[in-house]
Design goal:
single chain, mainly alpha, 2 domains
Length: 228
């Protein structure tokens, strides 16, 4: 599939997903109008859908290749976050010049270390990690936070797989999705800064599908973190 056809396919699938959303969740627009679902919430959910569709449209070979690259990138991110904070703890100069809250730094080290360990375990596991798992987790988290009905949430996921002709869709049922949803929500660890980051040396995990300069990244990340 060439780039133009890929983009057209992505847009068409997302258009159909939006129709399904309204069908399954008729109160969705009311939540948006009442600002229960904020502009950033809705924007984030759009990004989740976009990235799920991109993953599901890929060939098996591309998914495996991208998944290996993604997990290395995630581990690198957490490794750097831990090292940076450990360096701060050892530097009296940095502490004195920046009025550092050492308790907060230590808590962050624990937080990022736990995340790093999770991803190292996934990397070393005999069970393959697929990049779409992260976006499925974000999808479930978002839907769960707004208390959308679980069965409809899972039905929509099956619809997305069908609309994208996802090569593994035949392996998924409502029961299997429900089981894997529980595992993802209880175990997967991710932070907002990992997903979208202003650091030019770091490639965002989420493809925002737009110019990142149009987003107030700090504000956006705070709202994303609330979903995690």
């Amino acid at each position: 599939m060439n780039v133009t056809n890929q983009l057209q396919s992505e847009k068409e699938v997302i258009r159909k997903i939006r129709l399904k959303l309204r069908e399954y969740f008729p109160n969705l627009q009311k939540l948006i109008d009442q600002n229960v679902i904020t502009k950033n919430d809705w924007l984030f959910f759009g990004m989740i859908q976009f990235n799920l569709v991109k993953c599901f449209l890929d060939t098996p070979e591309k998914i495996i290749r991208k998944s290996k690259k993604q997990i290395k990138q995630i581990i690198k991110f957490y490794d750097l976050e831990v090292k940076t904070r450990n360096y701060i703890l050892k530097s009296n100069t940095i502490q004195s010049e920046n009025n550092i809250d050492l308790k907060n730094i230590k808590e962050q080290i624990v937080y990022y270390s736990e995340h790093k360990e999770y991803w190292l375990d996934r990397q070393n596991s005999n069970e393959l990690y697929f990049n779409y798992e992260l976006f499925m987790f974000l999808y479930y988290k978002w839907m769960n936070n707004f208390e959308f009905e679980i069965d409809y949430t899972l039905n929509l996921m099956l619809d997305i797989m069908e609309l994208t002709n996802f090569y593994r869709q035949k392996f998924f049922t409502i029961e299997k999705l429900k089981y894997e949803r529980e595992i993802l929500l209880s175990k997967l660890k991710v932070s907002s800064l990992l997903l979208i980051n202003k650091n030019d040396d770091f490639q965002n995990i989420i493809d925002v599908g737009m110019d990142i300069e149009l987003i107030d990244v700090d504000s956006f990340n705070r709202e994303i973190q609330a979903h995690l």
